[in-house]
Design a protein that fits this description.
The chain is an alpha/beta fold. Strands 5-6-4-1-7-8 form a 6-stranded parallel beta sheet, sandwiched between helices. Strands 11-10-9-15-16-17 form a 6-stranded parallel beta sheet, sandwiched between helices. Strands 13-12-14 form a 3-stranded antiparallel beta sheet. α11 packs parallel to α12. The protein is elongated, with a radius of gyration of 22 Å. It starts with a helix and ends with a helix.
Length: 403
């Protein structure tokens, strides 16, 4: 795929450059709680603006039901982008209507505009090729060139991700080029031992990637809510912990397959438990207890890996040549259940290998828990996209950028 450096070499002065970014940032009470994705697209936007382009930035935010659902407006993201750029950013209150055209027409070389949430238009996510294509046609009328830099959305066959590049000269932005380069190190150029840490709530979200990694990785370390389905599959009492009964047969097959192939599939040996899920808004102390993973009380819920598991997982990461981590080890949003995730993050920092934090909640945890982002090899902006790439799937947004 052609990159933004090739576009800049060709010249963009005065050209309208459509940048499909990923500004899908977490919000709380109308405020951005993590601006990592905005900062990630900054190099591409700044390079284009500095070269004299009229930069049109577009993205989605959440899953709005209608344009009236203003909690999903990109206004706050546009304001934050302006702060990071140190320059004004125009904001269009629609996607392809009069406001969008006025905002783009009003741009001078080197200036930036942000369109309203693309998902306010049903054509963006439509499964009908014609409807999606018609929306892409309207977006194309706003630009001369397309730059794809929203890695967190490249696994979606959406109008601005898949259909629009076919209508304009297209290039990969700095973020996508970096993300793809990193993921190739996890698939084509792996330094061993290759250790994968998987967490999060549901094992069903990770089945496909586990299936693929059992043929690629040397060790799989399991945490988060999904760990309790593994523990149940091993015959252990897990109390009231999260379990997906319909996945037990598949998980059992994975455990047996790992044993046959020599892949270390490691599950928690202890857990921090409590009577119920904590109130994340109150952050009040819950006084968890730590129990062995094979001796969990029937009336307790597992909410984090325990200290022995932290030590075990750190030892499994100590000699890693490559590490990929996707999914927290517990309910890290509450201080009583953040220790496991914090311990894994620290073990990645202590590891001599190339470390990749695979987006989503893992990336949010790194920032929330106060770690230096630059100390990791790479922090991805796309958890779902990263997982689908590792599963071996063709990602529509990347395929659309190929020449």
């Amino acid at each position: 795929m052609k990159t933004i450096d090739e576009l800049l070499a060709e010249g963009v002065d005065g050209k309208r450059v459509f940048v499909r970014a990923d500004l899908n940032v977490p919000m709380a009470d109308g405020l951005i709680t993590d601006d990592g994705r905005i900062r990630a697209v900054l190099p591409t936007v700044k390079a284009l603006a500095d070269a004299g382009a009229k930069v049109v930035v577009a993205s989605h935010l959440g899953r709005p039901k209608s344009p009236a659902d203003l909690q999903f407006s990109l206004l706050r993201a546009a304001e934050r982008l302006a702060e990071l750029l140190g320059a004004p950013v125009a904001f269009a209150q629609d996607t392809t209507g009069p406001a969008a055209h006025d905002a783009v027409d009003g741009l001078q070389p080197g200036q930036v505009a942000v369109l309203e949430n693309l998902r306010f238009n049903p054509g963006e996510t439509s499964k009908d090729d014609t409807e999606r294509g018609e929306f892409a046609d309207r977006l194309a009328a706003l630009a001369d060139v397309y730059v794809g830099d929203g890695f967190g959305a490249v696994h979606r066959k959406h109008a601005s991700v898949y259909d629009l590049p076919a209508r304009l000269p297209h290039y990969a932005g700095y973020l996508i080029a970096t993300e793809v380069g990193v993921l190739r190190k996890l698939t084509d150029d792996v330094k061993r031992p290759y250790v994968v840490v998987l967490g999060g709530a549901k094992v069903s979200d990770k089945l496909a990637v586990i299936d693929e990694l059992l043929d690629r990785a040397d060790r799989l370390l399991i945490g988060g809510g999904m760990a309790y389905t593994f523990l149940r599959a091993q015959g252990h009492e897990i109390g009231t912990s999260l379990v997906q009964e319909d996945q037990l047969a598949q998980v059992t097959e994975y455990l047996e397959r790992a044993a046959k192939t020599g892949v270390e599939l490691v599950v928690p040996v202890d857990a921090r438990v409590a009577p119920a899920f904590p109130d994340l808004s109150a952050q009040a102390p819950t006084h968890p207890t730590t129990v062995a993973a094979d001796a969990m009380p029937a009336d307790r819920m597992g909410l984090d890996i325990g200290p022995e598991t932290e030590t075990l997982y750190a030892s499994k990461l100590a000699d890693a040549g490559t590490v990929f981590w996707n999914g927290p080890m517990g309910v890290f949003e509450h201080p009583d259940y953040a220790e496991g995730t914090k311990a894994v993050a620290q073990a990645l920092l202590d590891s001599p290998g190339f470390t990749v934090v695979g987006g989503g909640d893992s990336a949010a945890a790194v920032r929330t828990l106060g770690f230096d982002e630059s100390a990791f090899g790479h922090i991805s902006t796309g958890g779902g996209a990263s997982l689908e790439y590792l599963e071996g799937k063709t990602l529509p947004g990347l395929a659309a950028l190929e020449d």
